C-alpha cells in the first residue's frame, strides 16, 4: 500500500494534550512588567478566554467542538503517503511515509489550530482576532477560519514579505482580513521602529509586538497565535492522532518522527501523540530540522526570554537565540523565529528531542529532488524535514535497518516558486544577501 | 454527507470513450497542405503512435495501463464535495456538488491526460514530447508526467505568461522541463512573428505552431496535447466515471453538469461519461461556461478551421472564433483559445450542450465568494463554472427545484492570486487593457 486514507468519519473527536504525560510541567509564563508568573487574568486579557484555559489544562483529552470538526471535514483526514520513488532513489531499506497536511484549503497544517482559535473566539464573545504572520501561512489559515466563524481579523505581516511576497496577502484579503505590514504605521511600536530605521524589514517578533499593542488598545480584540503556545500544539495533535491510526492500519509503528521546526507546531502535532510510547520505552527518535541560519534548538540556549521583540509578550523558558536576534532572510519564512515553543524546548531539554540544522541550498536541493520523484513540491519549511529524512534514510542504508520513517509534509511550495526559480538558476545562496529594499514611505500603506 | 470519498482501489480501471455512443462521428481532421483527410501516417508523425490510434478508436472502454493507474494513485480518486455554505448563502433548494480536481500535485485536472500521454510516448519509443501551454497548467502537469516517465520535454509557453507569470515556469523547470517563450527565437515561425512584431504577447495558437515545427524538425519528438483531441477527453473520463460512482453511492443523479470551457478537457471529462444517459432520455443539462471575451461556443460558428495560428496543425470542424483571433488578456489564461475541442463542438452542434459566457469581473466575484464560503480559492477558469452554478442555483430557487448540480472544480487559484489582488482592490476590468510590454530582446531568452 502506497497511501493510507482514513474515512471522513475517522477525524479525531478529541485533541490530545501532552501536559499530563510529560516528565515535568513547563515553566510558568512570566509577566515581564512584574517578573512574576502571569495571572489567569493577564492571559485572558491577552488571549481568547478558552485558550487561556487550554494553555495550562491537565486534561489528557479535550473534546473537539462539533463546529470545529465540521470545518475539519473540508480536508481532513489527510492522507499518509509512502514516498516509494524517494526510497528507490536512495536505495534505502527504510520505509518513508509522509503525513500530507498540504491538502488544506490554505495549503498547510496551520488551519488545524486556526479554526479552533476562531471558533473559541467567537464562542467567547470576542469581536476580532489580531495576529502576526511571516510569509503568510498562518495568516491565510486564520483569515479563512475567521471568515468561516464570522469574526474580524487584523494581521501584522512581516514587512519584507508584505511587499515582496504579496500572494498570501492577496489570499488573506480575499478571505476578508485586514493586513498591515510590520513594522508599520498602525501602532506606536511600529512607528517608532520605522522612525529609527525606515528600511526595517520586520520579523515575526516585531509583528507580535504590534499585534499585542493592538489587543491592549481594544477590549474586543484578542491575540491569536500560530505556534508557540501549548494550546496550539494541542490543536495540531490531530496530525499525530490520525498518523497513529494510519500506521496501525498497516501494522507499523514509527522509528523516526521528523518535522521542520520554526516554533514547533507541526513537529508537536505529529510527534507529541507518540511521546508517551517513547517514555514507555519505544525506540522512537523525534527529530527537528532547522535552518542553519536560525536554529534555536541546535545553536540556541535554554533560558528565560521574550516571545516578541519588545517584551510585551510573556517571558518564557525555551531554547532561544535571543529575542533581539534578527533572522537572516532565508526563504523558509515560517522558520524565521528566534525561539521555539516552550513545550518543544522542554522535550529537547529533557533529552526527548533530537535536532539538526541545514543550510538553505541543501534544503532546496532536497525539496526539488522530492518534487521530481514524488510530484509534490514542498514548502521550503517542509523541505527541511525532507533533508533530514534523506540523511536518516541514508544512515538506514548503511546500517541495513528497515526503519519506518514518518515526516510531516506541513505545506506545499507553490507560493515559494520564485525561490525554487533561484535555485534552478543556480542563484540561491545559503544565506541570501539582505536584498530587501523598503518601499518609499510616501503613498503606500505602512 | 458533505463529502464523498472513494477508496484508492476505486480508481477506474478503464477510460470511457464516447465515440461509439455519439449520434454521429466527428468530421475527420483535414491535412491543410492537401485539403484531404489526414492519414494515419500523418498523425503518427505528429503525435505519439498510441495517441493516433486512440484518436479514432471506436472501443467503448480502454484499459488504463497499470503504470498510469499507479501514477493516478498519487492523488486519485478525487473527492466529490458538497458546497453546503454556498447553497445556504444562495438559499437554493438545489444541492451543489463539486468534483475537486485541484488536489493533483500540479493543481488541476490536466495531470490525468499528461500521465497517459507521457506513458505512451515512453512505451512507443519516443525520446521527447513537445507541447504548448498558456498560463502553465498543462505544461506543469506534463512536466511532472515526463519526469515520472523519464522523458524529455520542451514547452512553448505563451510569451506574456512566460514573462509575467513565472511561477508555473519555475515549476516546470523544477520538474526538469525546458521552457521557451512563444513567440521566441527557437523556431522559424517564432522568429518571423517577433521580426514582424517584437512585442507580440503570443497565444496558445502561436505556441502550437512552434511546437509542431519542432516536432517536424526532430524525428524523436512528438506533440503532446493538453486539450482538443479525442484521446485527451478519453483520459479525462476518469473525472466523470468517479463522479458517477460517488453520486450513485449517495443515491443521486445529476441534473446539471457544469464546467468551464477553453477547449473542453474538463467539461468533456466530467460530462461525456453521462452523455449516454442523456441520449437515453435522462433530463441532464450539460452547461459550458466561457469567458465573454473569448467564447467560441457562445459567439463562434461551427466550421472548418485551423487548430493553430499558422495552419500547421490539422484542420478541424468545430466552433471557432477564427484561428487568427487573438484573445484579449483575461486572467483565465487556460480559456484563451479561439476554438473548442471537436468533440465538444459536435455535442454542441447536436444540441446536447448548452453554453453561457460571463465577463471577467462577474467571474472573479463568484470565485472570491466561493473562497470565502467554501475555503477553496478557485482558478479563474474554474470560477467561470462557479459563476454558472450560481445562476443555475438561483434559477432553482425561483422554481423551487431541488436539482443536483455538479460542477468540475478543475484547478486551484493559488498562482492566480495577483489577479484576485486586482479584484480585491477594485482594479479588475472586464477586459483588461493590453498591458503586456515585451521585455527588450537583448540579454533575455526569447
TrEMBL record, chains A, B:
EC number: 4.2.1.20
Pathway connected to this protein: Amino-acid biosynthesis; L-tryptophan biosynthesis; L-tryptophan from chorismate: step 5/5
Domain Tryptophan synthase beta chain-like PALP: 75-411
Catalytic function, reaction form: (1S,2R)-1-C-(indol-3-yl)glycerol 3-phosphate + L-serine = D-glyceraldehyde 3-phosphate + L-tryptophan + H2O
Pfam families to which the protein is assigned, alphabetical: PALP (PF00291)
InterPro entries attached to this UniProt entry: Trp_synth_b-like (IPR006316), Trp_synth_beta/beta-like (IPR023026), TrpB-like_PALP (IPR001926), TrpB-like_PALP_sf (IPR036052)
Family matches, as SUPFAM superfamilies: Tryptophan synthase beta subunit-like PLP-dependent enzymes
Keyword Manganese: no
Cofactor(s) listed in the protein's UniProt record: pyridoxal 5'-phosphate
Keywords, in A-Z order: Amino-acid biosynthesis, Aromatic amino acid biosynthesis, Lyase, Pyridoxal phosphate, Tryptophan biosynthesis
Coiled coil segments of this chain: none
A Gene Ontology cellular-component term: cytoplasm
Xref: PANTHER family: TRYPTOPHAN SYNTHASE, TRYPTOPHAN SYNTHASE-RELATED
Subunit structure: Tetramer of two alpha and two beta chains.
Family statement: Belongs to the TrpB family.
Role, per record: The beta subunit is responsible for the synthesis of L-tryptophan from indole and L-serine.
Protein name as it appears in the record: tryptophan synthase
Organism: Actinomadura darangshiensis
